[in-house]
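User: Quick sanity check before I run a bigger batch. Here is a single chain. Can you write out its predicted 3D structure?
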Amino acid sequence: MAGALVFFPGTPPFPFEKLDIDTAHSEIGFSIRFMGLTNVHGRFKTFRGTVMYVEHDLPRSTVGVLIDVKSVDTGNDWRDRDLKGPAFFNADSFPTITTVPAGMPGNPAVYAQPNPPQLYSG
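Assistant: Done. Predicted structure follows.
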C-alpha cells in the first residue's frame, strides 16, 4: 500500500509519544442500513495508522490512518466489487482513504474523493 502518513510540517511544539496502531488487534469496520430492512457490516482488511499521544494535553493528541480501499470486505464478492467501483469508493481512481488531524493547517479532516465517507471511532 503506497502513501505516507504526515502529521506535522515540522517538529511539533509540544512533547508527544508516537504510537503505531496495532493492526493485528484493531479493525476498521462499518455498518450500513440496507433498504431499511437490515444492516450490512463490513471492514477494511488493510490499513495502518499512527497516534501522536500528548499525555498532559489530550486534545492535542491526533490520529492518522491510511486505508487500502481495495481491501473492503463485506463477505459478499458482488457487493465488494460494487463498493470498489465508480458508484461508491472508485478505488481505481482513489485507492486510499486517508485521515489527517483536523486541526492541522492546510489539511482536511478526511479526503479520498469529492464526497468522502465519515470516520468515527468507538
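Residues 3-10, 104-117 have pLDDT under 50 and may be disordered.

User: Great, the batch can go ahead then.
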